[in-house]
Amino acid sequence: MLRNNHAGAAQTPPTLPMPAQAFRFSTPVVETPGIFVLASWIIRLLRVLVLAPIRFPVAVGSTAALTTTGYLFGTVGLTVTVIAATSVLLTWRTRWPLSFHRLVALRVLAAWRWITVYRRHWQPVLVVAGLAESYQERRYLPRIRKVTCSSWADRVRVRLVAGTAPADVEQRVAELAHGFGAASCRVTVLGPRDVVLEFPRHDTLADPLDALPIPRDPDLAALPVGRREDGEPWHLRLHGTHVLVVGVTGAGKGSVLWSVIRAMSPAVRDGTAQVWAVDPKRMELSYGRGLFARYADTGETAVALLETAVAGMQDRAERYAGRQRAHVPTVDDPFVVVVLDEVAFLTAYHPDRDVRRRAENAIATLTSQGRSVGFCVLAALQDPRKEVMNLRNLFPDKIALRLDEASQVDMVLGEGARERGANAHLIDPDLPGVAFVRVEGSPIPVRVRAAYVCDDDIDTMVTEYGAAPLRPVSDEGAA
Ligand SMILES: Nc1ncnc2c1ncn2[C@@H]1O[C@H](COP(=O)(O)OP(=O)(O)OP(=O)(O)O)[C@@H](O)[C@H]1O
């Protein structure tokens, strides 16, 4: 080593820049020959030509027919054909407007929206929304399979990129809605990599609904209380469940309670159903006292009413035990709906701890045991947090009217509801009565609006159906 003259040469002076790595590997850039590029364009064109008659049979068929007519019979023949076709369409539209709307107008609209909205803005909106996936330096986007229109919404059926999940889309519904100029976007999963995005074109619930006609023979498992966004009636089940209605002040909780009471009032008149009302505000239910079998408006009387209900329920359960497994409403064993307006008054805000405790116990007992023996609790609440109402999970059915915060949506409608488009915290304050609900058999929240039952309607209901005598619970005492 000492004899080696170049011994110091192997050492690197500290100032010499060191390469980050000894060898650099990079993907070789190979230019695609022009013939391959041309061939790929020709294949794409052929694919479009072959698939067009399958995907758009009417459009391709009519274009082909017109071209052939023009070729065979000249301009005159073409003009006659166009006039004849237009007359047929006009006659169809006048005589059978519904089928024309469904088979022609909505299909033309769908094609128009597909080209001018979704196809045109698909790539930029999805890329900016973060739904484009990259793999080996190539970008992959979910693909539009089909666009259809209903009278109020566009439905875009989409094939997801392999390796992504519907949850990725559900997290971007706000971006998609704004990107395509819609008020909201809802995601429905049809199958693996197969989802439908629903974009409303206009708000079908913008106009208030007058009180609905009272059904002659009410079905307590499907009471008409309003309308769904898709134009279908909104039915609410009471028999065999408990319902919690949540919304900030002025959200329209009263309209849901009154619509329910209105729909079941024939059953109240014939004695097969009873409404027991707790009205701590004295401003909501007191107006229709004549409809209620029992009524309470103070903490003490409310607790007495609830405990009377619990006693009645337990008595019924004892009679049914071993004999009957389901309740059938009769005059002897009526279906009892305990309506609690502002239930937090009893469970959180009442100054007497004993009243709060007894009320909570009674509500918990009714909601956990009352379903099968014909007792239902229909409660309204402003604030769904656990500190205010820790019994909300005992209510199988919940209605989310306008809420204060985004986090409250999942508290009310269950996990994932907001991701699926139930933006109850974004409901316009000018639309009281608008809510999101889950309907039976579907995880997708549905937007609905309750009908508005005005004071005159309540007066009429009391006059025509208020057969039940008013029996204040305080007269009888708690059971
Ligand atoms: N379904 C509805 N359609 C149209 N307007 C409604 C509807 N529901 C309520 N409103 C209007 O909104 C107002 C407030 O409604 P409501 O009193 O039912 O709200 P709330 O949620 O019960 O509020 P609070 O908790 O303060 O009592 C009503 O006076 C009425 O004018």
Structural overview:
The chain has 479 residues and is α/β, with parallel strands linked by helices. It has three domains: 50-95; 105-202, Threonyl-tRNA Synthetase, Chain A, domain 2; 223-320 and 327-476, P-loop containing nucleotide triphosphate hydrolases (Rossmann fold, 3-Layer(aba) Sandwich), CATH 3.40.50.300. It contains twelve helices and 16 strands. Strand 5 and strand 6 form a beta hairpin. Helix 2 packs across helix 3, helix 6 (253-269) runs parallel beside helix 11 (455-465) and helix 7 (299-320) packs parallel to helix 9 (353-369). The radius of gyration is 33 Å and the shape is elongated. The termini are far apart. The structure holds adenosine-5'-triphosphate. Adenosine-5'-triphosphate (ATP) binds next to helix 6. Keywords: ATP-binding, Membrane, Nucleotide-binding, Transmembrane, Transmembrane helix.
CATH topology group of the largest domain: Rossmann fold
Bound molecules: adenosine-5'-triphosphate
| Percentage of residues assigned to helices | 25-40%
Mean pLDDT: 86
Q: Determine the number of helices (DSSP H or I, runs of at least 4 residues).
A: 12
3D shape: elongated
CATH hierarchy: architecture of the largest domain = 3-Layer(aba) Sandwich
Keywords: ATP-binding, Membrane, Nucleotide-binding, Transmembrane, Transmembrane helix
Binding site for ATP: 247-254
Protein name: DNA segregation ATPase FtsK/SpoIIIE, S-DNA-T family
Transmembrane segments: 70-92
Brief digest:
The chain has 12 helices and 16 strands. The protein has 479 residues and is of the alpha/beta class.
